Amino acid sequence: MDKNKVLHLLGLCMRANKLISGEMFVLEKIKSNQAKLVFLANDAGFNTSKRIRDKSKFYNVEVIDLFDSLEISSAIGKNNRKAIGIIDKGFAEQIKSVILN
User: Fold this and answer.
1) In this predicted structure, what is the pLDDT of residue 73?
2) For the chain, what percentages of helix, strand and coil (3-state, to nearest 5) are there?
3) Whole-number Å distance between alpha carbons of 8 and 28
4) Tell me, what's the pLDDT at 1?
5) Beta-carbon neighbour count of residue 92 at 10 Å?
6) Beta pairing partners, 2
7) 21, 84 in Cβ contact below 8 A?
8) Residue 41 Cα distances to 17, 65, 81, 88, angstroms
9) Please, what is the angle between helix 69-76 and helix 3-15, to 10°?
10) Which has the closest alpha carbon to 50: 65, 70, 29, 66?
11) What is the dihedral of CA 73, 51, 29, 99, to 10 degrees?
12) Positions in the chain short of pLDDT 50
């Protein structure tokens, strides 16, 4: 797996407006079945992590925790992001394929 390629794809998602960031926005998209893939920072707090994981499990959305908040934030160009959601199926599948290879 090439971490830099995944981070690059996250940046592309952000520029294409196919990514949402922030815990509340991610939870909202999970509940409305618009989130296809969720990235959760591996240094997120217990409560944030539990909320995101529980909602994702209930609504059958995959959660990936490969990166810390600094890596996620710098990839998308925003400060202090703990959770981001991909809302485009094509981008989500492409990111999953890069992670699996």
Assistant:
1) 92
2) 55, 15, 30
3) 25
4) 74
5) 21
6) none
7) yes
8) 20, 6, 8, 20
9) 50
10) 65
11) 50
12) none
- What is the rounded distance in angstroms from the CA atom of residue 69 to the CA atom of residue 73? 6
Do you know the residue count of the chain?
101
Please identify which residue in the block is written with the tokens 């959660």.
Answer: 63
**Pairing between strand 62-64 and 37-40?**
parallel
- The CATH code that applies to domain 3-100 is 3.30.1330.30
State the alpha helices, DSSP H only, in 3-88.
Answer: 3-15, 23-31, 46-58, 69-76
| Residue for token pair 């160009």 | 77
